[in-house]
Amino acid sequence: MPVRLKTRYRRAGDGKAEPTDSRRDALYDPRVAPDGLAYTGEELAPRAHISIVQARSIALRTIPGEITDEELETEDGGSGLRYTFNIRRGAKTYEVGIDASTGAMLENTIEGQAQH
Questions:
Q1: Would you place residue 115 in the very low, low, confident or very high pLDDT band (cuts 50, 70, 90)?
Q2: CA dihedral sign of residues 14, 26, 62, 54
Q3: Residue 61, in any domain of the structure
Q4: For the segment 87-108, what is each residue's pLDDT rounded down to a tens digit?
Q5: 14/40 Cα distance (integer angstroms)
């Protein structure tokens, strides 16, 4: 079942509770995809040896930024099952691929640039 974003509250300087930005908070909640819904390819998760939470952590250590898209997919290379993340950092978006069996980084490219 998809995880939905919840409104969270924090104390403002005057002591009153006010809602926080739930999309920003979702970045700190590893169970929530950037759009608040389950990720694409979630049905493949039982075949993965590492969780999407672990894969996100590896990807964000590689390229710190904001995850704008994520999926679990079958693709050539590594074990054949990989998590792919689009991570926005400044004006660039990187595509980072993490092997779903080993956690190894399989791809780290700037989106839109040809690979050599």
A1: low
A2: positive
A3: yes
A4: 999 999 999 999 999 999 999 9
A5: 42
The answer to whether residue 74 sits within a structural domain is yes
**Cα separation, 114 vs 70, whole angstroms:** 20
Residue 75 in any domain: the answer is yes
Note the pLDDT of residue 112. 76
**Number of separate domains in the chain:** 1
Kindly list the distances between the CA atom of residue 64 and the CA atoms of 8, 46, 84, 95, 116, in Å, as whole numbers in the listed order.
24, 27, 15, 12, 24
Rounded Cα gap, residues 28 and 22, in angstroms:
10
pLDDT digits 0-9 by tens, 29-88: 444 444 444 788 888 999 999 999 999 999 999 999 999 999 999 988 888 999 999 999
106 is written with which tokens? Answer: 């399989």
* DSSP β-bridge partners for residue 74: 81
Which residue type sits at 70? E
Residue 3: both structure tokens together: 């995880």
* Cα separations in angstroms, 108 against 9, 23, 58, 61, 113: 36, 25, 12, 12, 11
